[in-house]
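Async update (no meeting this week)

Hi team, since we skipped the sync, here's where things stand on the single-chain job. The sequence we agreed to prioritize is pasted below, unchanged from the tracker. I ran it this morning and attached the output directly underneath so nobody has to dig for it. Comments welcome in thread, and please keep replies under the output.
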Amino acid sequence: MSLASYYQQVFLVTVAVLAGLAAGSFLNVVIHRLPKMLERQWRAECAELSGSTAPPPAARYDLVVPRSECPKCGHGITALQNIPLVSYVFLRGKCAYCDAPISLRYPIVEALSAALAGYIAWRYGMSTAMLGALIFAWAMVALAFIDLDTFYLPDSITLPLLWAGLLFNTGAAFTDLRSAVIGAAAGYLALWSVFWAYKLATGKEGMGYGDFKLLAAIGAWVGWKMLPQVILISSIVGAAVGITLIAFARHGRDKPIPFGPYLAVAGLVALFWGEQINRQYLNLF
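Output:
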């Protein structure tokens, strides 16, 4: 690599990290507000279907309005207090007005989004694959934390992500289109089959429909050959975390554990290192 190419790569990675910090700040808004927006929509639809008197229109609430505020004292957060990571460190993890602790999740999401962006820029360079990988990675971050908080995997993220994967793979950004289409269908049917097998055997629902759609979206991005790896990794990690929570955190066995975060982690692993992992596995035999 020439010196000019090296500096270009450093510049690209730096810009990507800064963009990742900004994206992480926005993802925090999505993670916090999108489930509340969906709940409002569901209540309005239920009221309409039941024929009951519709409640008065609520104040606008979306990803833009109202401006961010402290959940305890309600004081608006200024632009300077909303700089990714820097503000958290400067404020020492507390609200500037009431000293209420700021959730550690906010800097974690920002740092994770920035780290993923930097790695993707370094790995793919300025390309269509870089843009696609950024979209996929940031969507995985949002879905993982929403599922951790609410046990929701919103269709408003998973379904566009599925179609985006197919569109990017029309140019074989990560796999060929045939593999992507089969991956989307097989991903959905794989967990759909597990869901119904478990329900018929126990009379209980073992997972939500959002998990089917998330695996379908992952299949659309990485192709059907990666699905066994995604399912295996997510199952192993999920089982390890579940056993740890039961053993050390007094987590009840009947208390559900979200599966989306483990699918998201496995999807990222498959996107970045799936081919190498499959190759190493096949070399063993």
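Quick observations from my side:
The chain has a mean pLDDT of 90.
The two ends are 36 Å apart (CA to CA).
Reply here if anything looks off.
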